[in-house]
Amino acid sequence: MRRAVVLLVCGKAEVVHGDPTGMVVHSATSSLEVPSVIRLATYVRVPYRGRVPLTRAGLMLRDRYRCAYCGGRAETIDHVVPRSRGGQHTWQNCVACCAKCNHRKADKLLSELGWRLRVVPSAPRGPHWRLLAGVVDADPLWLPYLGEPAA
Q: Which residues contact 21 (CB under 8 A, 6 or more apart)?
């Protein structure tokens, strides 16, 4: 929000979609409705673009709330190589999982069970993942502007 307001005040962005029920920022001489969606007038370098943080919400979004083993509705997170066996807490080793499969797998390796992953886990890429990783549900007003996040 802060960055959007600064870009607007500096004339580097314009409002595409305002939110009349949203917040209003006040200064000594003026007021500004905080926009929901802005468009940059010119390219503005992003000061820091690090890796997408591994969060529960981000992982569930990446796997589309589907179990990596059976394809059912995922409720938990599973480490493909269990942490007790040296597995890391990374995008490449974590998958969304239903409670039944998570319980059956326990601290075993996939080869011990004869299981296979439906999709090989990887870190998400794309312009929207940094924004969506920490958000459980994106603001419905943003959907026409975001499109489908790349998996």
A: none
CA Rg value for the chain: 20
Give the chain's length. Answer: 151
Helices then strands, counting H and E runs in the chain, come out as 6, 6
- Give CA–CA dist 14/31, Å, rounded: 16
CA distances from 137 to 9, 82, 104, 140, 150 (A): 28, 29, 30, 8, 16
Which has more pLDDT, 89 or 129?
A: 89
Domains of the chain: 1-45 (no CATH), 53-135 (1.10.30)
pTM of the predicted model as reported, rounded to 2 decimal places: 0.59
Residues 147 and 18 sit within 8 Å (Cβ to Cβ): no
H-only helix segments in 49-147? 56-62, 99-105, 110-113, 129-132, 143-146
* Chain segment 2-53, per-residue pLDDT in tens: 888 888 888 889 888 877 777 888 888 888 888 888 888 988 776 666 678 8
